[in-house]
Amino acid sequence: KNEVEQSPQNLTAQEGEFITINCSYSVGISALHWLQQHPGGGIVSLFMLSSGKKKHGRLIATINIQEKHSSLHITASHPRDSAVYICAVGEFGNEKLTFGTGTRLTIIP
Amino acid sequence: NAGVTQTPKFQVLKTGQSMTLQCAQDMNHNSMYWYRQDPGMGLRLIYYSASEGTTDKGEVPNGYNVSRLNKREFSLRLESAAPSQTSVYFCASFRDRGFGELFFGEGSRLTVL
Predict the structure, then answer these.
(1) pLDDT band for position B98 (50/70/90)?
(2) CA-to-CA distance for B48 and B60, rounded, in angstroms?
(3) Long-range contact list for A6-10, CB < 8 A, 24+ apart?
(4) Does the CB of B42 have a partner CB in chain A at under 8 Å?
(5) Of the candidates A57, A16, A52, A51, which has an alpha carbon nearest to the alpha carbon of residue A36?
(6) What percent of chain B stands above pLDDT 90?
């Protein structure tokens, strides 16, 4: 079974700071997902990665397949970015995803 | 609106009662999933359906049953609810075999007294 670890578990930063959230996994994967969950809210997909880097607005996701590691970066952070960010991985030939426990991000104005 | 719709959003049950959580997606996705989310734990898979007519157990299937009624709908049934099933339940769908964007329902908060 793939083990997915996220760090840090909690992160508090000032508005405008550059944010990095990390995700490591133990077994080779077919794809990695970054998800966002606002307090009391639903879960939305931010990125799906199988290699390289993707950018959407102020969000950037990277993955290093050899090192089994992915990072989610937020530039010019804003209080509305406050949420739990969840990493999930899928494996070849496996219908199931394995989820990390999430990183709770709080951006202070 | 395209997406995943699940009902009800909130439910309170007494121990031993039964209920069904409904989930429907209108994106013609093959794969559908039911997860539960508990404080301090990652999302855990209860059951999934890779295609219409097939269902398989996930990590925590005990106490639950599912039905893939058609390609759109995937329901989760609690036959005899227990306090340990107090949780937030999410339905999700993929286009195919875990690839592509994940879509989640808004969640169903279930409390079993």
Answers:
(1) low
(2) 11
(3) A6/A85, A6/A86, A6/A87, A6/A100, A6/A101, A6/A102, A6/A103, A7/A103, A8/A103, A9/A101, A9/A102, A9/A103, A9/A104, A10/A103, A10/A104, A10/A106
(4) yes
(5) A57
(6) 77
Q: What is the dihedral of CA B82, B83, B84, B87, to 10 degrees?
A: 110
Q: What is the nearest CA distance from A31 to chain B, expressed in angstroms?
A: 7
| pLDDT tens-place string over residues B33-44 | 999 999 878 899
Tell me the one-letter amino acid at A11.
Answer: L
Residue B107 predicted with pLDDT over 90: yes
Contact between chains at A35 and B101 (C-beta distance less than 8 A): no
What amino acid occupies position A92?
F
Interface probe, candidates B43, B54, B89, chain A, greatest A C-beta count within 10 A: B43
Question: Which residues of A fall within a CB distance of 8 Å from B99?
Answer: 30-31, 48, 90
Residues 6+ apart with CB under 8 A from A24: A4, A5, A6, A7, A68, A69, A70
Q: Which residues of chain A have pLDDT under 70?
A: 95
Whether residue A79 lies within 8 A of chain B, CB to CB, comes out as no
* Residue B19 or A90, more confident: B19
Mean pLDDT of chain B, nearest integer: 91
Nearest CA to CA, how far is B100 from chain A (Å)?
A: 7
